[in-house]
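Q: Start with the shorter request: fold the first protein.
A: Done. Sequence, then structure:
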Amino acid sequence: MTRTSEPFISIIIPVLRDAEQLARLINTLPVVSVERSSEIIVVDGGSDPALEELRVRFPNIRWLQSRIGRGPQMNHGAAVSNGQWLCFIHADTCLPVGWDHEIARINEMSDVVGGSFRFVLDAENWQARLLERGVEWRVRWLDLPFGDQGLFIRRDVFEVMGGFKSWPLMEDVDIVRRLRQRGRLWHSDLPIRVSPRRWRRDGWFLRSAGNLCLLMLYMAGMSPERLARIYYRRNIRG
C-alpha cells in the first residue's frame, strides 16, 4: 500500500450497544482512502444486530467481533490494523478537525510515544465546563488522560508493551502509566467532544466523583476485578 508523507493511522472503535452513537461518529470521520492514509475499524463486543444497517451503509469500514471488554476489543482491532499510529476512540465521541494532521506532526517527535486530545463535554451546562477544568488539571499535573479523550499510540510501542490488559476496568489508566515509562505523552489542545449522556443520567458531579474514587482505589492497589464489581453495582455503564 502506498502511503503519503503523513503517518498511516488506524482508528479503532470498541462498541457495545452503541449503534446510535457510532452512526453519529462515523459521519464525522474522513472517508477511508489510500490518499488520506487512514482506516476505520469497529470492534463489537456484543453481536449487536443494530449494527447491520451501518455495515451496509459503510462497507469500507472493517467490522469485527470479539469477546466483550474494551481491552480485548481494542487489542483485536489493533491486531488486524495497518497503522503506524493507532487511535483508540469511544463511540460517543467526536474527533476534532485536524486530528490527523496533529498526529502527523507528532510523528516527527521521536520522544513522543502517544497522547490524547483535550476533553470537552458536548453540552452548554456550567457543570460541564467545571468538569472539563478538572480533567485539564488531571492531565496537566498527573499526566493521566483517560480513554474517552482518544488515545493515540505508536504501533511499535503498543506492540512492545503487549497492548491493553484484558481487565474489566482501568485498562486505559494502566496503558497510559506504562506508556509514560516508554517516552513522552503529547496532550493535544485539539478538543475531542464527548457525549454528556452518562453525566446527565448519573448526575454531573456524582459520576465524576465516583470515577475519582475508583481511580484512587486502583492507585491504592485494589484489583480491577473488585473495582468493576463496585462500578457496575452503581449501575453506571461504559
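Q: Next, the second protein, separately.
A: Sequence, then structure:
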Amino acid sequence: MRRITFDIETEGDFRSNGDMSGLEVTVVGVHDSTTGTLTGFYKEELHKLWPVFESADIIVGYNSDHFDIPILNKYYAGDLTKIKSVDLLKEIKNVLGRRLKLDNIAEATLGRNKTGHGLDAVTWWKQGLKEKVRDYCLEDVRITDELYEYARKHGSLKYKDYEGIREIKLDTSQWEELDTGAGMTHTLPF
C-alpha cells in the first residue's frame, strides 16, 4: 500500500469566517511510504506532485480534509477528495469532540515539538526564506507520518492537558483497507 503523508504551507488572505479562497499554496511537503523519502514542492512545481498523489492508495494529513485538500484542489485538474484519506485531526475530533493542535499531539505522543507555527512560515515566506518554509513543512510531514505510524501500532495517540498526558483511543482498523468501490479518476495525462 502506497501511503502519501502531506502538509501544505500557504500565504494570502485568510478571512475569519473560514473562507480560504484567498490563500495560495507556497509549499507542499510529502512523505512517500514506498521510498521513505521526504520531498518539498514549491507552487511552481505542483505539476510534479500530481502523479505522486494519483499513485497513492491513501493520503494522510493533519486537518487535511478541511484545509489542505480544498486548497490543493484549486490547482488540481481532478478531485483529490476521491483519493482515500485519513485526517488525523478529524479522527481525534471524532473521539474527543474537539480539535487539538498538532504540536500538542506531537509533544505528548512523540516527545518532541514542531519547529515553528504556521504563522512563522507565512512570515518566513514574506522574508524570502523559502528553504526554511520548505524545511518547516517537511518536519510537519515527518511528525504527521510518525503519529500515523504510532496510531496504527498502538491504536491511540496522546495529548497533554491540565491533568497531564492523556490517551485518545482510535479505531485504525480500516485506515489501510483498500477502497475497491471508488476508483481514482486520473484526469492528468500520465
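Q: Describe the second briefly.
A: The chain has a mean pLDDT of 91. The chain has one domain: 3-169.
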